[in-house]
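Troubleshooting entry. The earlier prediction with 4-fluoro-L-phenylalanine gave an output that would not parse, so I re-checked the input for stray whitespace and re-submitted. Clean input:
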Amino acid sequence: MAPSKREQFGSSFSFIMAVAGSAIGLGNIWRFPYMVGEHGGGAFIVAYIICCLFLAVPCFVCEAVIGRRGRSDVYGSLERLAPKSKWKWLGGVSVFAAFVIVSFYCVVGGWSLDFLVRSLSGRLSHGDPDGASILFKRMSSGTLEPLSMYVTFLLATALIVIGGIKKGIERFTKITTPLLFFLMVAMVIYSVSLPGASAGVEYLVRSDFSKMDAAGWACALGQAFFSMSLGIGAVLVYSSFMKKEDSILKGGLWTAASDTFFAIISGFAIMPAVFAAGFEPSAGPSLVYETLPFIFAKMGIEAPVLSWIMTMVFFLAILSAALTSSISMFEVCIEYLVHRFGIKRWQAAVAFLVPILMLGVPCVLSFGPLSEFKIFGLTVFDLCDFVCSNVLMTLGALAFAIFVGWRMKRADVFDEFTNGGTLGFSAKVFRPLYFFVRWLVPPIIIIIFISNLL
Ligand code: PFF
């Protein structure tokens, strides 16, 4: 496709809503609050903000520079910017990583759909609280129910992406990303007003810097990359649809700020409720899917209507956060096929649905019939999560930084970053940022990556 014919986001706002929508997802809602508690409360938040500002934002800029200058999918952009080199294979790895992530991410997306459906009928807010907390295990360990929700969530993702950038992704994320914000604010108000919620607030704000060891920093970095959707080309592909006059730095800073803000308010939405219910804050999906139904059901005894509304609000928020993220991963995959083989978007989507289902079905069943099937001691779901979140995304972000810092010409990077020298503030920060990308970002990522693996 000729660069001039490429679709574009209608405005800078639309671009930011799409990338922020990709960034704000399940990683913010269940992973971040738990990590904050485990790694010293406020101390982890400080480390996370440092990682975001000094590592994730520069890596975001690198992906955006490659995408907007390359004006193609990940593979095609790298091929265009480094012709006849092996760099394009990095694009191949990114597409593979995006395919694996979307396959397992949709499992959790399917659960939120399931819980939203249950909440509509009032089954979550009006049931027995003890039954509500074990509902998740019963549902996720089943076969037909989680599979059908998985397929529905995946098809919804595919349909939005088939709609294209303007009619599909832009239209959807421009509504859902701001909506998500209001839904979560409503949830925070509800959560902190619960009796006994102050312990949850305390859990989030106390700072214990002694807990921020190497592992804590590794978690902060991994979380920053996962949360900002870095390392698999999602930011790169979205940036390839960005207008030439929009600011890359503004996009990066807005994404980092809204993503961090959202992670923090998710903490304040969830932890007070967890403490109010007398639960121990525990890791992973259980926090959201076991604890909160219990709370909603408990509240339902005294305030059935409020509890019914808040249950729907909460699971709608999770569902829309998950969808705006999954569409960005799916877009990485189908853009690749569209460009490589010149096929239509719907054909590319159908072609990718087959392998996604082949990997996704064992991921869904990892919580039920296949829970004993382990590879390197991990279920299929956990293995996919580990390989992508801990290895492929970090190495991908590192490779994109090396590409911009060492392979592209400095003048080209400057030109793209400052829109031909017309953006005064971007021109001012270019020098330190470029120095960072060349000399500091790669070694820091390598050190943290190795210490994390050890
Ligand atoms: N940032 C998303 C989250 O926090 O849930 C996850 C994600 C989305 C990772 C898109 C990678 C990606 F390309």
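This one parsed fine. The pocket of 4-fluoro-L-phenylalanine is lined by residues 22-23, 25-28, 101, 226-227, 229, 232, 234, 325, 328-329 (CB under 6 Å).
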